[in-house]
Amino acid sequence: MVFFTRDLYTGTQDNSGRSRRAGREWDRRYEAYSRYLDVIGPYLPRPVRQLAADGPHDAVVRAASFGTGELTLRLDTSGALGSFRGRRPLRLTFRGVPGRVRTRHLLGQWWLYQEAHLRSNGRFSIHVLFDEDELEIEADEVLIAREWSSGTGKN
């Protein structure tokens, strides 16, 4: 995370002893990130812009898998904030992901904040701050879909 670091997030919590100061810094960084998104937004794919602008804050990772350059996250958004809140699970599929991505540690984690970034090779990356970890996902595209309650994955 570049703008919304774990240290800053921890500082904004009421029991940190520095919540007021960290809150002001969070607001400054939020404004800077908003300006940054205004600049890079036209170069990001539409689903990435959607995630960057209004991510699934407080969604819980219920399943995560990685294979052959594809990372899939299944999120419970019943308690999420913003436009991603819903009764049906949200599936994020990142395609063209290089290397390997560890997924087991993501199960049960809460998606807190995200940042979108451009990569020098024309790709994008999404940095996610979870309640207990962070993940940087570099990819060529991301698909956002709601799953049917039967688990069929229809869109």
UniProtKB/TrEMBL annotation:
Pfam families: DUF4085
Highest rank taxon of the organism: Bacteria
Matching InterPro entries: DUF4085 (IPR025144)
Protein name (database record): DUF4085 domain-containing protein
Species classification: Bacteria, Pseudomonadati, Planctomycetota, Planctomycetia, Gemmatales
